[in-house]
Every structure is written in structure tokens, then in C-alpha cells.
Amino acid sequence: MANWENADKLVAYKKMLSLKGLVSLKDVLDANRVKEFSVPMAAGLTYNYAAKEVNAQILAVLQELADEAELVAKFKELFEGAIINTGENRKVLHHLLRGQLGADVMFDGKNLRTFYKTQQENIATFAAKVHSGEITNAKGEKFDTVVQIGIGGSDLGPRAMYLALESYARKNNSLKMNSKFISNVDPDDAAAVMQSINPAKTLFVLVSKSGTTQETLANELFVKDYLKKAGLDASKHMVAVTSESSPLANNPSYLASFYIDDFIGGRFSSTSAVGGTVMTLSFGADIFAQFLEGANESDKTAVNSDIRKNPALLDALIGIYERNAQCYPATTILPYSQSLSRFPAHLQQADMESNGKHVNRFGEKINYATGPVLFGEPGTNGQHSFYQLLHQGTDIVPLQFIGFSDSQFGEDVVVDGSTSQKKLCANLVAQIVAFACGKSDENPNKSFAGGRPSSLIYGKQLTPKALGALLAHFENKIMFQGFVWNLNSFDQEGVQLGKVLTKKVLAGQIDGALKEYANIFDI
Amino acid sequence: MANWENADKLVAYKKMLSLKGLVSLKDVLDANRVKEFSVPMAAGLTYNYAAKEVNAQILAVLQELADEAELVAKFKELFEGAIINTGENRKVLHHLLRGQLGADVMFDGKNLRTFYKTQQENIATFAAKVHSGEITNAKGEKFDTVVQIGIGGSDLGPRAMYLALESYARKNNSLKMNSKFISNVDPDDAAAVMQSINPAKTLFVLVSKSGTTQETLANELFVKDYLKKAGLDASKHMVAVTSESSPLANNPSYLASFYIDDFIGGRFSSTSAVGGTVMTLSFGADIFAQFLEGANESDKTAVNSDIRKNPALLDALIGIYERNAQCYPATTILPYSQSLSRFPAHLQQADMESNGKHVNRFGEKINYATGPVLFGEPGTNGQHSFYQLLHQGTDIVPLQFIGFSDSQFGEDVVVDGSTSQKKLCANLVAQIVAFACGKSDENPNKSFAGGRPSSLIYGKQLTPKALGALLAHFENKIMFQGFVWNLNSFDQEGVQLGKVLTKKVLAGQIDGALKEYANIFDI
After folding, report:
1. Annotated catalytic residue within B9, B129, B384, B439
2. Å from B109 to nearest chain A CA?
3. What ipTM was assigned to the predicted interfaces of this complex?
4. Which residue of A has its CA nearest to B433?
5. For chain A, N or C: smaller number of CB within 10 Å?
6. Are B308 and B59 in contact (CB under 8 A)?
7. B287's torsion region: left (phi>0), alpha (psi -120 to 50) or beta?
8. What is the CB neighbour count within 10 angstroms for residue A205?
9. Which of B191, B434, B445 lies nearest to residue A501, judging by beta carbons?
10. What is the pLDDT of residue A301?
11. Which CATH code for domain B104-289?
12. pLDDT tens, position by position, A325-358
């Protein structure tokens, strides 16, 4: 059993704090460093950290920290089924969705890998029947659209993954069904989506682990009401993704039900039936399988105890150095790929909900900074927006760039001697160096201090496999950071109070300020 | 002439810094405060700051700061045509797009209000011809879709405004044309949009003030190439929005050109031809006029020197207190309205590009924190994502809530005794109180410290007029904050270095680290 200690009890952590401000990026960044500060990732991706504020001395201390905190040993405990989610007394098994890293994980006499695998197979079988026309609407017409109804982890990850591969699938003649998403309890969300589709040819995927999510149940009834008015039988248009114990399980209101369990956290459920149903319906089982393969390859690199061979671990530790030694309060994700437009929003949940905590895994208050604010938009769009502050603002915000040599569609034009794809990549690399090295100028307004650290994840193309690897990289990075901070990264008690108060508002059981606020909206 | 001084030279600013940590929200927030800490805004909106960490003493100092820094006098100089954008030697006239607040503003013998008004009229005339079928494609078919090609301010604002009113217009039978947007130089962005439309029935609106924006020109040629392959004459499908001196002006490649000038900054151009062309084509001239009316009403409230009667000024000053006295590094915008899904991305540009600066308006380095990181997503979605960190993370992030009593579509269902719209608003008010007051619990993991400040802007419905008022509120807030920090909020020198280096990369004029990075992408 690994030893779980607060970070500030660790010798290496204290050493790390003493190394604040050691590296001046503009003085060290050269061609050799770009070559050397590079770690292969899964699926042909590479993690380059040449423009991070680290050197051999800091890396050695980060290795000591990884060892002293037993980060890889903790990961092994996790994937072999230890109760890592202490607050909720649960295992944490999203790695098992995409391969077996260690021993079998059993629960109540059930082999859980087999359970997850069976769900994938059931989804694949169902999707194949939808695609072939064996399962159709009441008129015998093929379904051509999927609408996923879910919120939080049942929305952000699946939506980001769908958007990431929509163009790839279209290019490769694998876009079997278009997908849309309804998430917000705002009735305008559901209304706008319903107006944009032909409900007669739409399959709705209702996703709620508990089967009790307020927003999702309200949206389900919104959609059912809409279908009824359109003369359609909702039970022939709806599929549920839920846990076996939920009211949505084995329920004749749905064409089929696919299952997850308590060991798959919402924000880590893209590789489960939560992401798998919409992705398999949209792209087919093969593409979803490639996505899982990429994630599994990424997981395998995450068991290496050498930080220079474990990109997720290294990325995590550099992030700890930036957060706790350099004291940077925020970080930004900048994918130079329009298909990754919602990937930052997914990571925003995955990261901030996992590590935005003030107590350790034993429920004791801690005395150091944990998860940073995380935000991002695709480049080059962001360059014309918030990059001004990143370059010349008064705070330093570390950056995480993501880029690919090739586009997904392959359609391009040459303007002024270069393709758009080359321009995209040229912008990316120019930004890395601009942020790191800056530029002095007589006019302080045109002067750039530099010293803005960034990393770069790159690959040839955003394929399903590359996407799986990218996703798992960040999932594992977040997990390792949670281990260092000694957090339970897998609960979310911070969302409970709002839920409780909302119920009270709706029940009219309120007074004081809350009642006065409710009066504003005539509740 | 107002006196321009750095904030830390001001008596009131120093007084403000001494008032750090004065208010404990959970001790003061009660029903009376919710009633009292409220300021009417334009267009029937209200700004409520009961859950901000201010009291009579702090508000008095903020009023002193407003007076000492001559914030309203500076606004008056701005809208009457002073050279407020000192770095670029330009006037700042976006207020003039939507009404005349002071004296006429003349330039080169031209009345600029008349100039802007003429553009609006030209756009309205053109759009009416498109809607009536007087202007059609070569086959005589009506155009039914608009695609705007632009980036940064030519994309984020117009896109956010379009999405904000799309459902409203559909509900009110005013959705005359659907609109889409191409922004990123990533060729997959243009390819995906082109695949989703019928180009034969699409009007393209090319937006670039200079006529030289790299991304926009590349995307223009991408689209022209696509149209040519489809056998279409691009010059019959394209409209330009640009400055009169740009290569796009009076150019036979376009059906029509509409003009802005150097006094309209990109991120403040939603109420100019940049936003006006796509909005008028999409919704008609009436709706765009209502939008401008709301913005103008907002501007009028911003000239009041009493901070309790000037919501933009008050909001700005509370933000200064939070940033400089309380030292909060980030802020978040949380609209409880799915239609405002991209409003935070627009404000992210408007705010971070304006005030993410390290030099004052005279180009001298300053010694205090300026613009914060700004991010956001619509509620209730965000509740299931990053709110965990906002509630229980180790940093405090001030919040800006926005909500409406009524939805735009008016389609709704009752589930468990309440409509979705009521649930949406109940969640919003519950969050305000949860953040402010927290909850103590024996289990620290279920304990909420509270003390998370928020404000609330609310109204009856997100109408065109309300949207205009909301937009102008934030534009003016950003302007006032820039005045306090003594910044030039209207240039963006921080984006130049990346542009210069990109050109060098594409020209192959690089060595060292930059060349090695370029090699990665085979540039």
C-alpha cells in the first residue's frame, strides 16, 4: 500500500519550493533544448517541454517528488481496484474501459473488465442494427441523427470527442449519423436543438448514471412532450445510458439500455458507454475502438516510473512546480485545431472539478494551492482575443499548446506561398517562442518580457487513436496532480450545496436573502 | 481635459487598498441588502451587487476614486472624440454607432455619426433587397444563409450576438437567414462550414478592417476556390465589411461593401457594420435597431457621476477593488441562458485584450495588477463542471451571474411541479447564496467557506434591446477599469510579436529554437 501524505510533508516538495524562479526561459531556449526536452507519447504524439521553466536540477527534484509521493504505485493501486475515491468509498476504473493494465478487478463476484467490454459489444451490435436499417423508426425509415441528452460529464466529454472526430469521419466516409447535444435545463437549449432536427429520424440518447439528474430528466420530458405532439412514440426513439440500479435501467420506455457503474466518474466517462454510445452511433464501432486503443496506449506509458518516459507524469509535475513553486493561478489549453474547439471546455471540467479542492483525501484541510483555473479556445482564434493578456498582462499564465501537421479534411488553399495548415502551424510555433523569449523594444508598449512558459503536444493528424491518447494523457495528468496534492480527485462535494438550496427554492422553503433573490425571478 | 494618472498615485486608490478584507459576506447578506444593493440598468435590466464584498465605507471610497480619477469626465472626452487610443493616435467612437451622447464628432470635415448612420442605412437597404428577392443568386433563387468570414472582433462579438438572438428571432418569425461563421485559419474550420451549407444559396460576409488579416484572406480564398469548383461566381455571393482605404473597398469582387473606420476597435465593433451586416441579414433592420437602442440606453446611464446610478461604473469599481485590494486573479461570467453560450468568449476578448496590459497609456511600465483572466460557460452547465473549484478551490474567483425570468422560445414543461425555466432561475439564485454564505459541516469535505462574491444582472427576457444594453454595460465597464488603471484599453500591441514571428517562419527566415519547432511541423 502506498503512503498517502500531504504534499507539504514531503522532502522533495519542500525542495521544489526552494527552486522558485530558477530558469530564465529566454536564456535557455535553443535548438538543442527543443530536441532534448521531448518525450514520446502514445499513438505517435510527442510531449515537448523545452519552453517550460525547468532544468536538470528541477527535473531531478520532480523525479524525487514522483518517487517519494509514490505516484506510479498509487496509479497501480487505482487501476487494480483500490478504493481511491475515499469519500464515496468507490473504486476508480476508467482505465479498465480501454484495456487491462494489471490484475483482474472483481466486484460482487463480477469481473468488471468483462462488464465494461460487454457494454461496448452491446452498443456496437445496437449501432450496427441502426446503421443497417434493422432498427428504424415506426415508418421503417433509417435514423440519421443522434441527440444526446446529458449534462456535465455526460455532455462535455462526449460533445468534445464528437466534434473532434466529426470532420475526420466525414472525410473518411464514416460519418454514419450527425449528433447534437442537449444539456442545459434552460428550455431554450432543448427547443433550439429540436427545431434544428427532424425528430422522426432521430435517436435520443439519455445519459444519467443515477437516473435522477434534474436537468436531464427535465430535458427528457421536454423531448418526450415534443415527440408526442409530433405524433411519435418516444419509446421507439430513446436509448438510456445509466447504472444498472437506476430507474432508467431495463425500462420499457427505452429501445435499449447500456450500463456504467459507480466506478466510472462522470468527467472520466468519455471512454465508457457515456461517450461510446454517441460515438459508435455517429462513427461506427471501429472508430470508437481506435479511440479506446489510443487511450489504452496512453495509460500504458503512464505506469513508467521514470518521469522522462512518462509524459502524463512529467506534465503533471511541471504543473505542480508552476502552481506551487512559481505560484501561477491559472493555466490555458490552446489547441491549434478547430475540431478541438470544445476540448478546453471538457478539460475545464476534468481538471477543475477533480482538483479544485481544499481538503485532502482524508477530509482534512490543506495549506497549499491546488487546481488552477483552466480555460482555453482554439488557436489561431485565441490569438485575436485573450493572447494580449497572456503576452503583456501583469500575471503569468502557463500555456499548453496542441498541434498537428495535417488537417483532417485535407482541403486547403495556397495563399502567399503557404497553405492554411502551414500558416496554422507557423502561428503555433511562433507563439511558443514569442511567449518564451519575448522581445525588448525602446517603447515599453512594444516590449515583451517573455518568460511565459508553454508545452507542446503534437502529432501528424488528429485521428481517433490520437484523440484517445490525448484524452487519456490529460486524465492521467489530472490524476497524478491529485496524488501529489493528496486529494480525492474523484468526488465533487462542492456541487452539493447548490443542489440542496435549489430544491429548497423550488419547494418555497426559504427566507431571508435567498427568498429575496427568488422574488426577483418570481419563483 | 481630465488628468491621467496611474492608479497608485491616487489618494482614493491607496485608501481602497487599505480596506482589504473588510466585509464578510455571510455576515451581511440579508433580504434588505438584496433589495438595497441594486441599480437599474438600461432596457429594464438591473444590476444587483448585494453579494459583493462591499459596504457603505468601501462604496464611499469607490465614489472618491471615480471622482478623483475623473472617470465620467474621461468617458465624455472619449465620446466627444478625444484621442483616447494614444498608442495608435485614434479616437474611440463605438458609442457613436448607436447614438449621439455629446457634441458632433468631426474628422477630415466629415460628421462621423452621419457616416456610421449611413452605413447602417446602406446595410438595411441591401438586406431588404436580399430578403425580398431583389438580390438573388445567378439562378434567381433567394439567399437563405449567411456565412461571416472574420476573426477576433470580427467573429467573437458578431457570433455571440447572433447566437443570443437566433432563438428569439425564430420564435418571433424574424429569422430571415441562418448564419454561420468561419474564423480559424485551420482549413478544417472552413471545410466543415462549407460542407454544412448550400453554397449556391449563401451570402458570404467578409470582415476585415484593414483588408489584410491573414486568416480572413486565406479563408476568403478557400471559399472562393470552393465556390468556383461548384460552378458559382464568387463576386455574386460576397459582401465586404472593411475600411474605406482597404483593398476590399469599392472592389468589383464584392456585391457590396459596408464601412467602418479606425475609430471602431475590433472588439468593440458588434454595434458597427461588423456586427450589423450579419445581424441585419439574419434578423432584419428592426431587430438590429432595437439592439442599438439598448446599447445607447446603457451608454446614457454610464455618464452619471454617482456610482449608485451608473451600473457600469459601479461594476467596474467593484472589479478594481476585487483585483487590486482583494488580489483575486480571475473572474468568471455565468449567463443562465443557453443563448448566451458564446457571450463569455466575447467578453474574454473584450476584457483581456483591452486591459491585459503592463504599461500605462503613456507607454510607461506600471506596478499594479491590471485585467484579470476571464472565463465562463452558461449555467446550469457550468455547475456540473468547474463550479467545484469555485466553491471549494483554494483561490477565490469573483462571479458575474446573468439571468432572465422568461425563456426566449416560451416552450417549456412542468416536471416535479416546476418549469425548466423556474428550475434554471432557482439554480441561479441558489448558487449566489451558496457561494456567498457557504455552509459549515462537521466533515470538512462537505463544508463551504462561503465568501465567494458575485453580482447579478437580471431582466425579464433576453430581447434585442436587453442584449444591446448588456453588451454596452460590459464595454463601458471595461473602459472605466482601463481609465482607473490608466491604460490604453484600445490598442493590442501584445499580438504583434507573434504576427512578426509567424511571417518569418513562413518565409523560412529563422534559426535556433524557432527553426527546430518549425521542423516539427515540417514548415
Report:
1. B384
2. 32
3. 0.97
4. A514
5. N
6. yes
7. alpha
8. 25
9. B434
10. 98
11. 3.40.50.10490
12. 999 999 999 999 999 999 999 999 999 999 999 9
